[in-house]
Amino acid sequence: MFERIDTICLTVSNVEQSSIWYQELGFKVTFKGEGYRVLSVGTSGVPLTIEEGRISSKENHTYPILFTKDIKNTYLKLKEKGIKGTELQDDGDNYFFDFYDLDNNKLQVCFWE
């Protein structure tokens, strides 16, 4: 069903400032999207995505994003299993949806070409 962990996502309060901060640490911006940046570092195959959002010390905003080649089928399979999740979305760059584990931890699935 899943091919790999696509990225690890961190919520930041200001994506532009955070992007510069990470770049000063040696990260490179590999993709710019509305409200988020995908960063790579060294030879790691798993990028870091920083996503602008509300920061709260009580909530953990870190979540894995899993890549699939067949997002519609993956979405339907998880829905058939009764797994709680969001609707399938298209932001113009990729398709994605969130789903939640037994402890209500967020995971996301994406597909992009």
TrEMBL record:
SUPFAM superfamilies: Glyoxalase/Bleomycin resistance protein/Dihydroxybiphenyl dioxygenase
Domain of life: Bacteria
InterPro entries found in the cross-reference section: Glyas_Bleomycin-R_OHBP_Dase, Glyas_Fos-R_dOase_dom, VOC_core
Pfam family, one: Glyoxalase
Start and end residues of each VOC domain: 4-112
PROSITE patterns: VOC
UniProt cross-references to Gene3D superfamilies, sorted A to Z: 2,3-Dihydroxybiphenyl 1,2-Dioxygenase, domain 1
Protein name: VOC family protein
Organism: Virgibacillus tibetensis
